[in-house]
């Protein structure tokens, strides 16, 4: 706006697009960035941002922890001093990552570089160890080395330990005997399918990160899954601490499914349980490929099991 010979400029600073950002690490574990601008500034400077971790514990309560960034190591100045932005950081600094050869700029070369880096990210070399194999019941080689893609390692290890499955998790796709992947992750990932096809590595897809889905996926890899036989569920797979209350609640759900819901096609309501125990019952019901819902008010909240 002009007023005589003077000019007045009015500026209004636009607010940031997002005030807060949330990273989902696992189903019930998140990283919270309460100040997105500060986080972006730290990342652009090559520093680790302050992260707030939130998770849901076994009692259904949200826990919060603050992780401070690691202090930067200061090195004395030398003759060939590199500006701060040119110094190698992270894996480049300690020699674990080698520089990739540069090619002339162009859309085609950039796409090839991206594909090559993506493939290298799947082929993470692990310390060399001798793979000891023993014959399985049908003469197959055990243990089976499984590469998880989009599936959390913690529930896989829980299933392997609870059912005593001959499976070893690996981070090296090239050394894997099979891939256990979320269907939603692998459906549009043609590069992973291409690598697995060339190396003749089967991909076994599951629809969710739940224990029943992971259990069925691992059993399919071992060739011991029978989709027509859903009886005799192993309650050890679903119990957390193995207490009498947990086993009793799981046994109640198992009997309701096997003796009422499946044979008669009638829904069943179970006794009121805590949120932690109801979660175990829901997972057990899913093992039978049935649906269940929680209803009612605490402390009388309980689950209802529906026929297929």
The biggest beta sheet is recorded as: 4 strands, antiparallel
- What kind of oligomer do you see? single chain
> How large, in whole angstroms, is the Cα Rg?
26 Å
Tally of extended strands?
A: 15
Distance between the termini: 71 Å
Shape: globular
| Residues in helix, % | 25-40%
Order of helices and strands: EEEEHEEHEEEHEEHHEHHEHEE
Low-confidence blocks of residues: 1-16, 74-86, 102-106
User: How much is the average pLDDT?
Assistant: 75
**Percent strand:** 15-25%
Q: Spatial order of the strands in the main sheet?
A: 3-4-5-6
Helix/strand structural class: alpha+beta
- Count the DSSP helices: 8
Question: Can you offer a commentary on this structure?
Answer:
This protein is an alpha+beta fold and 308 residues long. Helix content is 31%, strand content 20%. The chain is built from eight helices and 15 strands. It has a four-stranded antiparallel beta sheet, with no helix packed on it. A hairpin with a 2-residue loop joins strand 1 and strand 2 (6-7). Helix 3 (153-163) packs across helix 6 (211-222) and helix 7 packs across helix 8 (275-287). The longest helix is centred in the C-terminal third of the chain and has 21 residues, at 244-264. Mean pLDDT is 75; it is low at 1-16, 74-86 and 102-106.
């Amino acid at each position: 706006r002009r007023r005589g010979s003077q000019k007045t400029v009015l500026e209004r600073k636009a607010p940031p697009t997002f005030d807060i950002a949330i990273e989902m690490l696992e189903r019930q574990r998140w990283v919270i960035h309460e100040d997105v601008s500060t986080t972006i500034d730290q990342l652009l400077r090559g520093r680790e941002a302050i992260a707030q971790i939130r998770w849901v514990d076994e009692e259904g309560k949200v826990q919060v922890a603050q992780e401070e960034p690691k202090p930067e190591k200061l090195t004395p100045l030398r003759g060939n001093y590199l500006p701060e932005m040119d110094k190698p950081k992270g894996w480049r600094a300690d020699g674990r990552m080698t520089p990739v050869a540069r090619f002339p700029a162009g859309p085609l070369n950039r796409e090839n570089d991206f594909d090559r880096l993506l493939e290298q990210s799947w082929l993470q070399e692990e310390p060399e160890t001798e793979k000891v194999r023993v014959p399985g019941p049908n003469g197959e080689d055990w243990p089976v080395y499984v590469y998880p893609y989009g599936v959390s390692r913690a529930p896989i290890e829980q299933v392997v330990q609870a059912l005593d499955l001959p499976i070893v998790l690996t981070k090296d796709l090239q050394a894997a005997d099979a891939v256990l992947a979320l269907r939603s992750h692998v459906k549009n990932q043609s590069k992973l399918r291409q690598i697995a096809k060339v190396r003749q590595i089967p991909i076994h897809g599951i629809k969710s990160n739940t224990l029943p889905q992971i259990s069925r996926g691992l059993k399919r890899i071992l060739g011991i899954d029978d989709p027509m036989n859903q009886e005799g569920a192993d309650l050890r797979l679903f119990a957390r601490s193995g207490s009498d209350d947990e086993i009793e609640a799981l046994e109640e759900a198992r009997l309701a499914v096997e003796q009422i819901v499946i044979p008669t096609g009638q829904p069943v309501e179970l006794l009121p349980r805590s949120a932690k125990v109801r979660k175990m019952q829901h997972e057990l019901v899913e093992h039978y490929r049935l649906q269940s819902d929680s209803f009612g008010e605490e402390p009388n909240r309980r689950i209802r099991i529906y026929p297929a």
